[in-house]
Amino acid sequence: MTRRLWPEALSTQNLGQVAEYITSCIKIPDCKGSRGGAVSDGVWYRSSDSQPEDVICCEACYEDRVAGSPFVERFVRCASPQREDKIWSCDLCLPFISRALELYAKSNNWLVFRVIVEQRLHLPVCEGKAVNTSTRRWYRTRHLTQALWTCEGCYLDKSRLPPSIRSSN
């Protein structure tokens, strides 16, 4: 809304589309984040390209981030609902992927976005607990007396740096 509808409403002095958007969003379930959602939790969207791993997003994230962006044509509503015993989680709930979508949609660079998403989705899930250091890539602070180590997933999701996969030293 803030990228397209609101600027249009300000320039035309007409809040009609903004009001319609807000009314429709009230009915959409909130994103369940990385915990995922069941079949009854709303509509799901996936990337329309034929990559081995689809980008999956819930209806709330689709409406908030994808609709109105140049990538809207790259997503389709999932034709068949997920099986009752499956839980899907929204990929766009990951801050890194959300920032990458915003950045690469501006230049309509789907290919780079897909590569970055695939790399991020293949990282081990961090639960904030101690793990064997060989199970993931680590980043550490520089120029501090005591180093702070962060796993790659947390580094990418929590840092405000531009989305790109960097190797650690």
Task: Explain the overall architecture.
This protein is an alpha+beta fold and 169 residues long. The chain folds into two domains: 1-30, no CATH class; 31-158, no CATH class. Helices cover 34% and strands 9% of the residues. The chain has six helices and five strands, in the order ααββαβααββα. It has helices at residues 5-12, 16-26, 59-66, 95-106, 110-121, 152-158, and strands at 44-47, 56-58, 75-77, 138-140, 149-151. A hairpin with an 8-residue loop joins strand 4 and strand 5. Helix 4 (95-106) runs antiparallel to helix 5. It is globular, with a radius of gyration of 18 Å.
Share of helical residues:
25-40%
Portion of residues in beta strands equals 5-15%
Which spans have pLDDT < 50 for at least 5 consecutive residues? 165-169
Outline: globular
- Total of DSSP H or I helical runs spanning 4+ residues: 6
- Give the strand order, joined by hyphens, for the main sheet: 2-1-3
Average pLDDT across residues? 83
Brief overview, please?
This protein has 6 helices and 5 strands.
Question: How do the strands and helices of this protein lay out in sequence?
Answer:
Layout: H1 5-12, H2 16-26, E1 44-47, E2 56-58, H3 59-66, E3 75-77, H4 95-106, H5 110-121, E4 138-140, E5 149-151, H6 152-158
Antiparallel strand pairs: 1-2, 1-3, 4-5
Helix pairs in contact: 4-5
Q: What brief labels describe this structure?
A:
globular; single chain; 169 residues; alpha+beta; three-stranded antiparallel beta sheet; 2 domains
